[in-house]
Write a structure and sequence with these properties.
Elements (H helix, E strand, L loop, with lengths): L2 E5 L12 H15 L8 E5 H4 L1 H10 L4 H16 L1 E3 L10 H14 L4 E4 L1 H7 L6 E3 L15 E2 L5 H14 L2 E5 L8 H11 L10 E7 L6 H18 L6 E6 L5 E10 L5 E11 L15 E3 L2 H12 L1 H6 L3 E3 L15
Parallel strand pairs: 1-2, 1-4, 2-3, 4-5, 7-8, 8-9
Antiparallel strand pairs: 6-12, 7-10, 9-13, 10-11, 11-12
């Protein structure tokens, strides 16, 4: 669903293009494809070397002499910064475009990057052949955008579905799995997400988890707490790591979502969740499913994310809607007070 891009500074240099017109046309086309007006952006952008790449590109943009090109480059870079994700540094400080290209490749070998965009001269100097590497002029070709979009139809195969979610799971500080059957017959999907998201190389922090399931009136709360405890224990077996896991039960709902984001700090240094990405799903992989069946998945737009945030993630919703929370930061299990309408 989300595709990660990495640009080298040379993409924003005049020498990389035949003319100012070709340069401006390329930047305009990139902005249109990466940030469509009618839907969510299907991309994130690598800010390599722990957030040092994009400030370096910003310096380059300020040096552009052509006013029109500088305006387009500045607009594109501003949008790129809005979808940026940081990656840890892999090599010595990059001094040249070739150094940044080598840095992107090293990071790509650590955790794959969907598209690495550089200049043709830099790529040829690097003597690298990799299907994820493209010279900037190839971004005008249809093949460059194959597989990048707001929707997908994965089979009921866990690995295939996890590959679609990987970029989001890798860069999230927190992940919320919202599925009425997450603590019932779709636990396998929850375990697959947890295993994927907690498999991270050094330099990537382990995310916190929220698992939201349906409060089934046919069962006592103690029975559902037991199911939640069993699920949490099964997750703990996957990795012996420090990951906060909270499990919530809600009144009946039908939709399946995986949403994720980062933390921001308030003036009082309190961490607050910022929702950045979300995927809605018609069905998810379960044990013993027919693998040839396709499903319908979609990146969520801002209004959909706001709806999920208001209904499931906000403190207000947890105060006013019946729910049971199980789990705490120290990994113990506790029974939360039941809220009644």
């Amino acid at each position: 669903m989300l595709t990660e891009f990495a640009f080298t500074p040379g993409v924003f240099e005049r020498e990389s293009y035949e003319s100012d017109k070709v340069w401006s046309d390329t930047l305009r086309a990139l902005a249109a494809e990466m940030f469509p007006r009618t839907g969510p952006s299907p991309v994130v952008a690598s800010d390599l070397f722990s957030g040092s790449l994009l400030p370096e590109i910003r310096k380059q943009v300020r040096r552009i002499e052509n006013d029109n090109v500088r305006f387009l480059a500045d607009g594109l870079l501003t949008k790129i910064q809005q979808v940026a994700v940081q990656r840890p540094g892999m090599r010595n400080w990059p001094e040249s475009d070739l150094d940044w290209f080598q840095e992107s490749l090293a990071s790509h070998r650590d955790e794959p990057i969907g598209r690495i965009v550089s200049t043709r001269s830099t790529i040829e100097s690097g003597e690298i052949s990799d299907p994820s590497v493209y010279p900037v002029e190839d971004t005008n070709e249809d093949k460059f955008w194959n597989g990048i979009g707001m929707s997908s139809s994965p089979h009921l195969i866990a690995d295939e579905q996890m590959n679609l979610l990987r970029t989001m799971l890798l860069h999230a500080d927190w992940i919320a799995i919202i599925n009425p059957y997450s603590v019932d017959n779709e636990r396998a999907f929850v375990r697959a997400i947890y295993a994927n998201a907690t498999t991270r190389k050094p330099g990537y922090d382990v995310p916190d988890f929220e698992i939201h399931g349906q409060l089934d009136g046919r069962f006592e709360a103690s029975s559902q707490q037991s199911n939640a405890e069993d699920l949490k224990k099964s997750l703990a077996i996957i990795h012996s790591i420090e990951s906060n896991i909270s499990i919530f039960f809600w009144p009946k709902f039908l939709d399946r979502y995986v949403v994720a984001g980062t933390y921001t700090s308030t003036s009082s240094e309190v961490k607050r969740k910022k929702i950045r990405w979300g995927v809605s799903m018609s069905h998810v992989a379960r044990d013993n499913d027919q693998p040839d069946v396709r499903t319908s998945w979609h990146l969520m737009q801002k209004d959909g994310l706001r709806h999920v945030e208001s209904k499931f993630l906000s403190a207000e919703s947890r105060e006013s809607i019946q729910s049971i929370e199980i789990g705490s930061s120290d990994g113990s299990v506790r029974r939360a007070q039941r809220k009644v309408f």
